[in-house]
Amino acid sequence: MRGHVVVCGPVSWNSIVVLDHLPDPTPHMQFALEHFETIGGTSAGKALHLAGLGRSVVCRTVVGDDERSEGIVRALEAAGVRMEATATTGPPERHLNLMTPAGERVSIYLSSPTAPGPEATAFAALIEDADAVVMDLSEASRALLPTAVASGRPVWTDIHDYDGRNPFHTPFIESASYVFMNADGMPEPEEFMRARVAAGARAVVCTLGARGAIAADRHGMHRVDAVPTTVRDANGAGDAFLSGYLDATLTGSRTPEALAAASRQAVVALRSRHLHPVLEQTLGG
């Protein structure tokens, strides 16, 4: 195993329904092209891809106390992820994802476990010797951000479709050395990206789907094209992208090389209907 990474944030159980187009906002009937259940959650995706890249990974998360929660933990542990999961009463986080073959998505939250109180002492011990700490958006992660910053370890975050205004994202953005996002909520993100670098971030990266990705660092702006591939399912591609970039950065790559590695890793997720192909062994292809 190479390097130790802690990923803190949500895992989930997802029901995926693939449609030829997303539903119109009127009463109607549609036939699904396919439907299946799988593991989801942005932290699960990152942990799986980092483990697949040979990293020693710990996933700090919150689950429920039911059979689905147990299945999530078992599957991630079988994939090489060390799970530090707090179990609360009830179901795990669950999503209903309406997808199209083009990768469009509407995610409906069916349940979300209650966040536990801050566990700063235990979390500080967990990340003490980490090469990187990924703090994904969640209430539990938000409470532990001061501990992550105080550790002195490099903090990474993924703000997804941040629109430039949502206050929930602010402490994550201000705490992170590496900020990842997509352009869904901010179609022209360059000004924001440059501002964060000026404020002290080492790099800010924005994925652009089939158009590739851009990154800002102290040397300026960088761009990478998407790697052509046949898309099986777009869920988790952004998590795979961040994981590829993080892995390359920890091995000494600079921004252009890390972007190229990230684009290659995104393809691993795009070619599988699960977050990572390793789940096909436990959940089926």
Major pleated sheet: 9 strands, mixed
pLDDT averaged over residues: 95
SSE ordering: EEEHEHEEEHEHEHEHEEEHHH
- Range of helix content: 25-40%
* Gross geometry: globular
Number of domains: 1
Radius of gyration: 18 Å
Tally of individual helices: 9
The CATH architecture can be named as 3-Layer(aba) Sandwich
| Strand line-up across the major sheet | 5-4-1-8-9-10-11-12-13
CATH superfamily: Ribokinase
Secondary structural class? alpha/beta
In total, the number of strands is 13
| Text of the CATH class | Alpha Beta
Through-space gap between termini: 27 Å
CATH topology: UDP-N-acetylmuramoyl-L-alanine:D-glutamate ligase
How does this structure look, described?
There is one protein chain. The chain is α/β, with parallel strands linked by helices and 285 residues long. It has a single domain (4-25, 32-278), classed as Ribokinase (UDP-N-acetylmuramoyl-L-alanine:D-glutamate ligase). It has helices at residues 42-52, 67-78, 120-127, 139-150, 170-175, 190-198, 237-250, 255-270, 280-283, and strands at residues 4-8, 12-18, 34-40, 56-63, 81-87, 93-99, 105-111, 132-136, 155-158, 178-182, 203-207, 213-217, 220-224. The strands form 2 sheets. It has a 9-stranded mixed β-sheet, sandwiched between helices. It has a 4-stranded mixed β-sheet with strand order 3-2-6-7. α1 (42-52) packs across α7 and α7 (237-250) runs antiparallel to α8 (255-270). It is globular, with a radius of gyration of 18 Å. The two termini are 27 Å apart.
